[in-house]
Amino acid sequence: MTETWTQHGKVRAREGDGVLEVSVDGLTTQAKYYKPLIYEFFRKAWRGSRPAWGEYAVEIAMEYVGEPPWLDLDNLAKALLDAIKGYAFHDDAQVARLLVERKPGERERITILVRRLS
Questions:
Q1: Using one digit for the tens of pLDDT, what is the confidence trace for 38-85?
Q2: CATH number belonging to the domain at 6-116, selected among 1.20.120, 3.30.160, 1.20.1240, 3.30.1330
Q3: Full-prediction pTM beyond 0.85?
Q4: Which runs of E-coded beta strand occur in the chain?
């Protein structure tokens, strides 16, 4: 993984070794908030590789501080997959493996890891 991050507002991303990592600072209980936020980042700031065909594994981690927020993880996953579609892969139907988890962390953020499967 390269150490060079591209950042625009609350969203930053980097890629290397066949992995795209996207991080969003802060949490909200509205999953629909993330789609335009991440989409804007990719449209305005991202200059990484273009999407490819094939199957992908996606890991989504929502880290929280204190009490876990009331947020349906399935809605969060759908919003995030829609946001990275066209940049990480052509269509979210290419996602063959999906892991979505909520866990305590040092700060509130969402991390998305996208790996192309062989």
A1: 999 999 999 988 899 999 999 999 999 988 888 889 999 999 999 999
A2: 3.30.1330
A3: yes
A4: 6-8, 11-16, 19-25, 56-64, 95-104, 109-116
